[in-house]
Amino acid sequence: MSPPTPELPVVPTTAVGRALPRRDYIILPLISLLTVLVLLAASEVCARIFWPAQPANSCLVLDAVDGNRYKTNCTSRSKIAEGPWTTSNYNECGYFSVTSCKTKPANAVRIVILGSSIGQGIRVPYEQTFFSLASTGLNRMCSRSIDVQNLCVEGLYPIQVLRRLGAAVELKPDVVLFILCPGDVAEAEALAERKDVPAPAKAAPNSPSVLVRCKTWLKRMSLESRAMLLAQHFLLQNKDVLLRLHLAFGDKIEQPHAPGWQQRFADFDRIVGRMAGQLRSEGVPLILVSVPSRPQAAMLGLRQLPPNVDPFAFGRQVDMIAAKHGAGYVDISEVFSHIPDSENLFYVVDGHPTAEGQKIIAQYVEQKLLDGSVPAFSYCARQQSPERGK
Amino acid sequence: MGTASLQFLAYSFAVILVFNLFRSVAWRQFVLLAAGVGFLLCFSQRPVEFLPLAAFLASGFVSLRVLQAGKTGAFLPLLIVVIGAFMWLKEYAFIPSALFLQHPYLMVGLSYIFFRILHLIIDARYGELPRNISLVSYLNYTLNFTTLVSGPIQRYQDFAEMHLARVPLPLNVVVAGQSLERIVLGFFKVNVLSLILSMIQGRALGMIGSRQGASEQVLTGVLIAAAYPLYLYCNFSGYIDIVIGVARLLRFALPENFNRPFSSGNFIDFWNRWHITLSEWLKTYVYNPLLIVTMRRWPLPAAEPFLGVFAFFVTFFLVGLWHGQNAAFIFFGVLQGLGVSLTKLYQVLMAKWIGHKQYRELSRNWLYNIATRGLTFTWFTFTLLWFWSNWTQLGVLARSFRPSEIGLVWIAIFLGASVILALWEAIRGWLLSFQIAGEPLFMSRYVRTSFSTALAAIALATLMILNAPEPPIVYKAF
Question: Which one of B315, B443, B445, B463 would you mutate to disrupt binding with A, by most A Cβ within 10 Å of its Cβ?
Fold first, then answer.
């Protein structure tokens, strides 16, 4: 056996006694810094190559006052880094629908869907959205054509949804579904009536300091960075991390409700009351569907939770509001609580349900529409119930 | 606290800071002992769990003192007691389980403590140790927190020379930088490379039983078998890099344990480069004495090479046996012994048949080298099947592949290893050929600083993103 030789010439022993030249005290830290910068740039380039994204919807018209809307007869193609490419077609009314909004097809059951991005089934191809799957299923089971007019728009607040109710009624729907998630009622301005539009803030007399500008730039960079998004994607796949971050920084719903949430639920209650009242006068049933957020879904199956944290609280509160105003209700939280690791039914960073999640939502929406509470489906419901009882 | 964790590094740096506050021998001894005890306390806080380890250490110290007092007649009984106690505590399968302790107890580093104690007893018997080793020095040697978990196995003489020196090894910015480099490299190997390789093997194992085409099935087999030696290398040598770096900041140099093992041209050479301190230990305390005894028993010059073959087999059979307590590890030992002894036999016979000169020339042939490197890797990969799995798991694996697929898997591993290792050697040689001021460009401190920064950044990002506990050090189990 020969005597062992050191594995790595990386650490030459001859250098031990040598002093480090003075210039190296500056050069070596600079090399380290440069290396980190190069690594960041390289990871950003790689992330953009291997995880392409085009999240902006070219058909979306931003409107902070009346709410966002889609351009009429428009098609957009978008993709988030975590999901597939999706093509969205908007009809002559700017609704996310494959059929015309003008005339209701004869003998068809028309479903109108209201809400924000969650109701739009955003981030999955149209044929994989919950309403497309549900309409296909209903069509198959009831032998009637189903016409879906989806009025949901990304970033639309419930108060703005209320303002679109007139447009929804004009479509002569047989049923209106209002899809919501906790994020939709998480901001006070999403619910409160605003009579006056505040004037745009005047520019500050002094330009911000270099530090503030750097901070803003860094914040923007981190938000726009694809590498950062990927890091979040992998980090938030870990349930423990997701929950730790959510419980530390997220807008969690506690029992009893914090004053902010009490106010928001009260505002939401008024909105639902007005919607239900108007639809009742038109003879159109209203069904509320609440979809949990990803952190909420992660908590649903847990046996041990921090005190006062209740992932079912949002669903229960919406249930009470729906019951109070005579609206139907589907609690997807309840459904997801029976599915292990239901947080995997959502895109990790984006937070919208994946195609798998859409499939499950579709099943329960379909089931609700067939439970006899919607007259347009009552014939079909009678047909289905003996089969379901088997 | 895992040895490749950020917690271990934080603990080590705290110890380094306190250790270097004063230079007196007493201070250094006190800090190292406290660090060792503190490290052990990370594994358990129940005193009863420490008792067997404490008793084992005590038996070692008593044996040492008895032999240093000149009572050499007690050598053999003491040796048997220590070996027996070790096998009993490690619960070797041939000992009736009713004799084992029924409560849980601390076994961390026991195998490595055993090697140190045996070395002390044998060297004390032959008067090769300094006189009157103090209890503190003994405990610092056996419980040194940098080597406790998985070595490397250092001779007491080398340890004491540095640790008890009035003027300790120098620690300047260059040494600190080099030590940090070593720590970063080890941290990267364990937390990134070994993690990735273990995931690759895990996924491949997950594919077992799924319907696959023949080529996918062969690929799965290749990944299952060939990912493990690479994983084990990154895991173990990464740990060694970390502790060598930490120890150097504590002003003592630990022996190297790896020397590019996959560049070995034969299996004897492989064991000169893999777990070097273990094979050196066995060479000193098993191979040499055994060879001397057998040569005295059969003093024929013609038999000498074959006695070497036999001594090799016994030595490396023990290497395998040391790794575990059951039949799979006995077979692992047999395969190690066969690998080394057949290599030796081949060398002896080839030198006889074609002559020493021709054999030397053949050994220098580049194509021959590529093939022997690939063969060495393939044999080691094959032997490791009994290292990471047991007979039942091997049965499942064997039933999952057709005989022809198994054959193709090993052919693919041999060819792939030959080509990849040859490419690796060529690229390494090419990169090192760029020289500046007599030093390879890629070994300049500027390039190394950049390289280490990149490794540190990638390792930290991986840890943060995965947020999983660091992979366990495989050899911690031994």
Answer: B445
Asked if the Cβ–Cβ distance from B174 to A12 is below 8 Å, we say: no
Query: Long-range contacts made by residues B256-261, C-beta under 8 angstroms, separation at least 24?
Result: B256/A4, B256/A5, B256/A6, B256/A7, B256/B152, B257/B151, B257/B152, B258/A7, B258/B233, B259/A4, B259/A5, B259/A6, B259/A7, B260/A7, B261/B233
Q: What CA–CA distances, in Å, run from B341 to B268, B307, B346?
A: 8, 10, 8
Going by DSSP bridges, is the β-strand pair A175-180/A109-115 parallel, antiparallel, or unpaired? parallel
A204 in contact with chain B, both atoms CB, cutoff 8 A: no
Q: How far A36 CA lies from chain B's nearest CA (Å)?
A: 7
Contact present, A9 and B440 (Cβ < 8 Å): yes
Sign of CA dihedral A276, A282, A285, A289: negative
Predicted ipTM > 0.95: no
Structure tokens at A191: 């619910």
pLDDT by residue for chain B (478 residues), tens digit each? 777 889 999 999 999 999 999 989 999 999 999 999 999 999 988 999 999 999 999 999 999 999 999 999 999 999 999 999 999 999 888 889 899 998 999 988 899 999 999 999 999 999 999 988 999 999 999 999 999 999 899 999 999 999 888 888 999 999 999 999 999 999 999 999 999 999 999 999 998 888 788 899 999 999 999 999 999 999 999 999 999 999 999 999 999 999 999 999 999 999 999 999 999 999 999 999 999 999 999 888 888 889 999 999 999 999 888 888 788 899 999 999 999 999 999 999 999 999 999 999 999 999 999 999 999 999 999 999 999 998 999 999 999 999 999 999 999 999 999 999 999 999 999 999 998 888 899 899 999 999 999 999 999 998 888 777 777 888 777 7
Two tokens at A363? 């099943």
A69 bridge partner residues? A61
